[in-house]
Amino acid sequence: MLGTPEAGHTLGAIPCAIAWLFRGISEQRQRTGARFSVRVSCVELTTGQQQLRDLLAAHANGK
């Protein structure tokens, strides 16, 4: 999902999706002057226990 950061051509799905999102935002902002707000969540699903864990909880609100 993450790939290897050393080489741009081996980035995984997550970094590629984020790059695509911000490239699209930049293009729209240049064309229309629109403003955007982006929120990100990342959860882990443990199938055996059917539990969700917030992987970004330690980074929320400047913690």
Can you walk me through this structure?
This protein has a two-stranded antiparallel ribbon with strand order 1-2. Helix content is 32%, strand content 13%. It has one domain (8-62). With 63 residues, it is α+β, with helices and mostly antiparallel strands. It contains 1 helix and 2 strands, in the order αββ.
The structural domain count equals: 1
Low-confidence segments, given as residue ranges, are none
Radius of gyration: 16 Å
Strand order of the largest sheet: 1-2
Q: Note the run of SSEs as H and E.
A: HEE
Query: Tally the helices: what do you get?
Result: 1
Share of helical residues: 25-40%
Total count of strands: 2
Strand content: 5-15%
* Major sheet details: 2 strands, antiparallel
Class per helix and strand makeup: alpha+beta
Question: What is the general shape?
Answer: extended
- Mean pLDDT, to the nearest integer, reads 82
Please report the distance between the alpha carbons of the first and last residues.
25 Å
List keywords for this structure.
63 residues; alpha+beta; two-stranded antiparallel sheet; 1 helix; 13% strand; extended; ATP-binding; ATP binding; Kinesin_motor_dom; cytoskeleton
List the helices and strands and how they pair.
Layout: H1 13-32, E1 43-46, E2 51-54
Antiparallel strand pairs: 1-2
Family: Belongs to the TRAFAC class myosin-kinesin ATPase superfamily. Kinesin family.
Keywords: ATP-binding, Cytoplasm, Cytoskeleton, Nucleotide-binding
GO molecular function: ATP binding; microtubule binding; microtubule motor activity
